[in-house]
Design goal:
The chain is of the alpha+beta class. The chain has helices spanning 21-35, 41-46, 52-59, 67-82, and strands spanning 3-9, 14-20. A two-stranded antiparallel sheet has the order 1-2. Strand 1 (3-9) and strand 2 form a beta hairpin. The chain is globular and about 30 Å long.
Length: 100
């Protein structure tokens, strides 16, 4: 199964974990509507993938620039990924509160 990275340590470019490519495609539909198709899903994967909260918000069709949306979707994402035996590490948040 083709997998898509969820950003971990940005300095080393190591993913926090990976999700099935099809789930990333769903998030990319929202991403491309909001931010154009200037960057393909393949290119996003090469650059480290989505941030976890960014993925959660995009997956459920919201704008990741709206920080307040992120928390409401996180539990839904955790439940969805458990179906693929993917455990999401505890996220300590982003220091400045921005997602992207």
């Amino acid at each position: 199964m083709k997998m898509f990275p969820i950003q971990g340590d940005l300095r080393t470019r190591r993913p926090k974990f990976k999700i099935p490519w099809g789930l990333a495609e769903e998030a990319y539909l929202t991403y491309s509507k909001l931010f154009s198709r200037g960057q393909s899903l393949e290119r996003l994967a090469e650059r480290g993938g989505f941030d976890l909260k960014e993925f959660a918000v995009l997956f459920f069709g919201d704008n990741p620039c709206l920080v307040e949306c992120a928390d409401k979707h996180m539990e839904r994402v955790r439940t969805s990924l458990e179906e693929f035996d993917i455990k999401i590490p505890v996220d300590k948040g982003v220091p400045d509160g921005r997602l992207i």
